[in-house]
């Protein structure tokens, strides 16, 4: 069973370990020092930033992280993306990782994405769409989105998370279902 809770400061050592894993570090390109993790994840963990960092659990055991935020809360990010694709009012984005390398390639990412998408429709009735830009070279990530029901809507030139990558991104989108029964 996939569940989650808000990431808290006691989870930072686990997150640091995940961010240091080669399969995560390649795409997240994040400093792993205690200070860097506290600086970058602390405000959301304390509720001082509008984004949500969700610690994802599989049968009660931490396996990954999902970040969820509204584009409207990050105007620079919104402007960069909106210059390339249509971003409707009320759109959110997610980012995600499976931290434990032993859990990669088993479909957990797809299940995690589907669960968060379903919860977003239920918990946030004003969300119109979920839009996720993915570096073109990150095939595992964009394949997980496709398997979770997202559709590729564009190719875009966006600032990469990792400076070794070029600007080429695929943009994936899933819209709020129009049938109320599909929201569950």
TrEMBL record:
<dbReference type="InterPro" id="IPR016181">
    <property type="entry name" value="Acyl_CoA_acyltransferase"/>
</dbReference>
<keyword id="KW-0046">Antibiotic resistance</keyword>
<keyword id="KW-0012">Acyltransferase</keyword>
<keyword id="KW-0808">Transferase</keyword>
<dbReference type="GO" id="GO:0047663">
    <property type="term" value="F:aminoglycoside 6'-N-acetyltransferase activity"/>
</dbReference>
<dbReference type="Pfam" id="PF13523">
    <property type="entry name" value="Acetyltransf_8"/>
</dbReference>
<dbReference type="InterPro" id="IPR000182">
    <property type="entry name" value="GNAT_dom"/>
</dbReference>
<feature type="domain" description="N-acetyltransferase">
    <location>
        <begin position="2"/>
        <end position="177"/>
    </location>
</feature>
<protein>
    <submittedName>
        <fullName>Aminoglycoside 6'-N-acetyltransferase</fullName>
        <ecNumber>2.3.1.82</ecNumber>
    </submittedName>
</protein>
